[in-house]
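REQUEST
  id: r-88c1
  op: predict_structure
  target: Serine aminopeptidase S33 domain-containing protein
  payload:
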Amino acid sequence: MSTVTTVGSFFPSVRCCAPPSTSPLSNGRLKLNHVSNTARRLAVSTEQAISTETTTERNETTMRNHVSNGRLKESEEGEGMKEKQKNPYALELEKTEMELRSSRKSLEDYFEESKNFIAKSDGGGGGPPRWFSPLECGSRLDNSPLLLFLPGIDGIGLGLSKQHNTLGKIFDIWCLHIPVKDRTSFLGLVKLIERTVRSESYCFPNRPIYLAGESLGACLALAVAARNPDVDLVLVLANPATSFEKSQLQPLIPLLEVLPFQHQLTIPYMLSLMTGDSLRMAMDNAVKGFPLEQTIGGLSQDLVAMSSYLNALANILPRETLLWKLQMLKTASAYANSRLHAVKSQTLVLSSGRDQLLPSEEEGQRLYVALPKCEIRKFNDSGHFLFLEHDVDLANIIKGASCYRRGKYLDYISDYIPPTPLEFKKLYDSNRLFVLATSPVMLSYFQDGKIVRGLAGVPSEGPVLYVGYHMLMGFEVIPLISNFLLERNILIRGITHPMLYVKLKKEGMMPPLQQFDVVRTMGAVPVSGSNFYKLMSSKAHALLYPGGMREAYHRKGEEYKLFWPEKSEFVRMASRFGAKIVPFGVVGEDDFGEVVFDYDDQMKIPFLRDYIKGLSEEVVSLRTEADGEVGQQDLHQGGSRN
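RESPONSE
  id: r-88c1
  status: 200
  body:
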């Protein structure tokens, strides 16, 4: 096996045991279900909302298409097709820069949509609560699960307006609209949602139903889940109002009850609580990626919009409505908290670190402990109105947390949806400095032994199993997967440790699962025979490191040493499906990184020994029956120097 070495860099060198395939994509590949052009509409349409398809929506619809043999299949676009075949994903990423800027909705857009929606759908603010399906959601995958959006205190139902395009591709979205003058009680709203949930569950018994609620809506979701333990529900709760007793909104209730006037105090008080969030949202909207002139213009535009549309906010929450909603929040919080013990549904809590309306960060941690199937994602720099912030992508959050499924149980293979160009760009940019610092070079072989720079020697058609060894800390996997996607349009599905997916047996020293969301977003699956079988049978490109953590966290003097099991674990199954096995090696990283404080050193220090043992007890153990070094998979953090 040939390798290339240069000081200060590491170079994955890929050796192919078969020539690159030039045949078209076969029929037996792993495919996502084709896109359906039908969407159910209920009660109220949103034709008055901004529903013009943006270039980003068209772009993402084109590029997210289907996964076949581990490859992202792009559509033909005439003149540029030859260029696209050279590097389709990279070219698509270049287009994303301008499209990302042009697709963003401002605060003015949100207030304008809310104002128009109330005027046209309520006819003066009346009528009962009802569901609507946003037209801008467009087409979606077949068998997409139903997502019911439960709004916060405003009740409009447009809180996901910035998420409609991305969520609408993988969910059937219904939004609850509660008219301004409606006085349905909290329990009445719970029963309305409950009827919809039970009806849809009866019609589609094998399809989960997602309840996405913010603030008050999160309490509604918890109440419905507690009352319907037999229904397959997935809860997505953003800054839940179960912490209302500790909220700064509490003092408003007695104040509103005695105030003789309408908005002179209440609206400014609420705005003072959200000012920091709104200013930061305006800044983010204007600053990211814009020249100075546009930055100043955009910022002033958003600030003017906030002041100009305070009347719209006042129309949404007049004094009587605000008092009613605050009283409902108090009832909702008490009701949901008294029934937390009955909530058995899969739950994802989204907590903002700068929520000035509710103590959401502390509440998220409380719910994480109280609910048995709960995961938490923290957004330290976000405010109360989480879904309206530009850097929050709910579809990507759900996928990264392994919460997206279309059946009773999560299938890591068939339920997986690859990252869109926009999602991949964000992930790639987060590692750009690392890639620049290491300057990775890829080499591959043709069947005749010819060595070429790049990945031209890698087979296109699956199934393919890439088998290699870990360098120190396993950092080589970052440029490896990125370059396969950028250069060959091949998405490699890594086979990884189960600790990246399972809620810990107990809280302790392990980092939160949120740190591994990027790994799951890029298609990694927990190691198991059934998952490997599904990868091979679907003709995917899979990545396997037989040495596991023992190899990645090797000790002093063990550079380039293999720690592979004596028994073949997956090779026999790969051969059963006729998979091409591609061995590869990596050089460079172990040469400029030297281990100076390893596992053996740490085990000699009592408090570090206890730390390592405690860390290892928190996660699922692998290869417990294996003898020798390969069975020693204790978690630890080694010390190294360049």
